[in-house]
Amino acid sequence: MNDYRNQEKDEVVNHKSFVFYESFFIAMKCLSPEERSEYMHSICNYALYEKTFKLSPTIEGMFQLIKPQIDANLKKRKDGKKGGRPPNKP
């Protein structure tokens, strides 16, 4: 399990927002209300705070399918803070 602290800088991780895809929403339509709650909490805690929890097998399987997309979005955010590509020199 992760905690609310970033191991690199030892600061609180709080991204304030994240992208929630339609595919995440469609995937939860077949879940019970309790499973939907667990699914949404797992997505939000990971995307906002990079925190994971022990999940039920069904939700763990679904989470593992969406985790790479969230990770890619987090990487883009971190890379964007670096300032982007340097301008071309003539």
The structural class is: mainly alpha
Task: Report the sheet-strand fraction.
Answer: under 5%
User: How many H/I helical runs?
Assistant: 3
| Oligomeric description of these chains | single chain
Number of strands: 0
Principal-axis shape = elongated
The unreliable regions are 1-10
Mean pLDDT: 84
How far apart the termini lie comes to 50 Å
Major β-sheet profile: none
Radius of gyration: 16 Å
Order of helices and strands: HHH
Description:
By secondary structure, this protein is an all-alpha fold. The protein has a domain at 22-80. It is 52% helix and 0% strand. It has helices at 22-27, 33-49, 57-80. It is elongated. The N and C termini lie far apart (50 Å).
What are the defining features of this structure?
90 residues; mainly alpha; 3 helices
Brief rundown of the structure:
The protein is an all-alpha fold and 90 residues long. The chain contains three helices and no strands.
Note the topology.
Elements: H1 22-27, H2 33-49, H3 57-80
Helix pairs in contact: 2-3
